[in-house]
Design goal:
This protein is globular. The protein has 18 helices and 24 strands. The termini are far apart. It is α/β, with parallel strands linked by helices. It has a domain of 234 residues: ATPase, nucleotide binding domain (Nucleotidyltransferase, domain 5, 2-Layer Sandwich). The protein is 37% helix and 20% strand.
Length: 488
């Protein structure tokens, strides 16, 4: 058996597969994010260890861990997880959706404009390097104590094996990697007063990075020879789960964040529109990715704030989507700022055009529409760098609502494909990576597409009205943009 560990932002999931890539068992555990200030997002890494332990203990009741041959990971990207020389956590991990380091980003790019071509990306507050530069300025004692900077999933690797490694896909999001050459960049590390000694070793996602430690083997019952395989950032892992390793295919992930992902055979760039150019987790392959910081987190906020059930929210949305959409308000889904395509850490969410006639069903519709517009904005940015995107799969919790997917399909004018286990694709991808790495498998023999459940087609009757509303939505952001810094 092969174990995939998917460390998300709000939960951790473990998934076991057998040699035929059939799911044997799963377990999950939820945890919370800390937001000490507006635009900040932190997490105590002990939550991850505690969650992993709970998941493994659940699996242990029904599975013989001696039969687990290898373990790999999928993980939330970018989180600055800092360890001292004793391997102890220095401070809570600063997460991917934290925007406090915008000034450090500006400074990096202003003083070194060529770094965008090294990384293939704009410097963004979500990346790891600006977070460390912020620590150097605002928490100098914590910065001086840094011995290693790990990404979240790689802290789990350290816990399981006492080894310091990261794969190419996750390393691409640090802003310390030369993405085209797939190695650490001294120039970029110098910007943060760090060296390669402060970094984990680099590996391809399917490479072995050690075995479980004696302590872990005895605690959970693993075999002492159980291998630890590199793994991937969450979206690259999801792509492996979907079988996305070739150009022309892509995925839309509707989770806490919204992501569009497509593999490329070469290192392509469009950093002008905040499109990410990263390494894939397999050798000699890269990928383009756009990121909408707040996707289903908008839905979580809305249902909690307005005390509405999720099913009622979507009932309101679906009913309104069938109507003329007259006088519906507009929603900007920027609860924590935004990456693609605007790279704006100051902008926040807002409803516009609310009147006395506005009801909860109107706002429910506008919420989902606003997220769909954000994903469409992402798609337009990706298309500028890679126009041969023919097949799009949808994964994540948001893949469960057909009408929402119909709206997105209508905007991008492409069919969307839903597969089995679409909401667990990252964990399955991690397990598949563990299998590949353990057996040194040929990728084309192992990586197949999961069975298709359904295909969602565009609603051509809605295209004109949605296009007009999208253009107005864009103007609302442009109007709000100059005010946003003074409002934050």
């Amino acid at each position: 058996m092969y174990l995939g560990i998917d460390l998300g932002t709000s939960s951790i999931k473990c998934l076991l597969i057998d040699d035929n890539q059939k799911t044997v068992a799963t377990s999950s555990h939820d945890f919370t994010i800390s937001t000490p200030k507006s635009g900040w997002a932190e997490q105590d890494p002990s939550f991850w260890i505690n969650g992993l332990s709970k998941c493994l203990n659940v699996l242990n009741k029904n599975v013989d861990f001696k039969k687990i041959l290898s373990i790999s990971f999928s993980g939330q990207m970018h989180g600055a997880t800092c360890l001292n020389q004793e391997g102890k956590i220095i401070r809570p991990s600063i997460l991917w959706n934290d925007t406090r380091s915008f000034k450090e980003c500006e400074s990096m790019m202003d003083s070194n404009p060529d770094i965008m071509d090294i990384t293939g990306n704009l410097a963004m507050p979500g990346f790891t390097a600006p977070k460390i530069a912020w620590m150097r300025e605002h928490e100098p004692e914590a910065f001086k104590a840094i011995d290693k900077v790990l990404l979240p999933k790689d802290y789990l690797r350290f816990y399981l094996s006492n080894e310091f490694f990261t794969d190419m896909s996750d390393a691409s999001g640090t802003y310390w990697l030369n993405v085209g050459e797939r190695n650490w960049s001294k120039k970029l590390l110098d910007l943060c007063d760090l060296t390669e000694d402060n970094m984990p070793q680099l590996c391809e996602g399917t490479s072995q990075t050690g075995v479980v430690s004696k302590k872990i083997a005895e605690t959970y019952g693993f075999d002492y020879a159980c291998k630890i395989i590199g793994g991937a950032g969450d979206n690259a892992a999801g792509a492996i789960g979907l079988g996305l390793i070739s150009e022309g295919e892509g995925s839309i992930s509707l989770g806490t964040s919204g992501v569009i992902f497509t593999p490329t055979s070469k290192f392509k760039k469009n950093y002008h529109d905040a499109t990410h150019s990263f390494c894939h987790c397999i050798p000699n392959t890269w990928h383009l990715m756009t990121v909408m910081l707040s996707c289903t987190s908008n839905i979580n906020w809305f249902t909690e704030t307005f005390k509405i059930k999720l099913e009622d929210l979507f009932t309101h949305f679906e009913k309104k989507f069938q109507s003329k959409l007259d006088n519906c308000p507009f929603y900007l889904p920027y609860l924590t700022g935004e990456r693609t395509p605007i790279n704006d850490p100051f902008i926040r969410g807002s409803f516009t055009n609310i009147g006395l006639q506005t009801k909860l069903d109107d706002m429910s519709y506008s919420l989902i529409e606003g997220i769909a517009f954000g994903m469409f904005d992402n798609y337009l940015s990706l298309e500028k760098a890679n126009q041969n995107l023919d097949t799009l799969y949808v994964i994540g919790g948001g893949s469960q609502n057909d009408k929402w997917l119909e709206m997105i399909a209508t905007l991008i004018q492409k069919k969307l494909t839903i597969t089995e286990d679409s909401s667990s694709m990252a964990a399955f991808g991690a397990a598949r990576i563990a299998l590949i790495g353990n057996n040194n498998s040929n990728l084309n023999e192992v990586i197949s597409k999961p069975p298709i459940v359904k295909t969602i087609s565009p609603n051509f009757d809605k295209y004109e009205i949605l296009s007009k509303r999208f253009q107005l939505w864009k103007k609302i952001y442009e109007t709000n943009k100059p005010l946003a810094p003074s409002l934050s």
